[in-house]
Amino acid sequence: MSDSSANKDKSAGKGMTIHLKIWRQARSQAQGRFVDYTVSGIQQEMSFLEMLDILNEDLIRKGEEAIEFDSDCREGICGTCGMVVSGVAHGTHAGTTTCEIRMRHYKDGDTITVEPFRAGPFPVIKDLVVNRESFDRIQRKGGFVSTNVGSAPDGNAVLVPKDAADNAMDAATCIGCGACVAACPNASASLFVSAKISQLAWLPQGEPERGRRALAMIAQMDAEGFGDCSNHGECEAVCPKQISIQNIAKMRREYIKAAWVGADRSRNTGGE
Question: What's the predicted TM-score (pTM) here?
Answer without folding.
Answer: 0.89
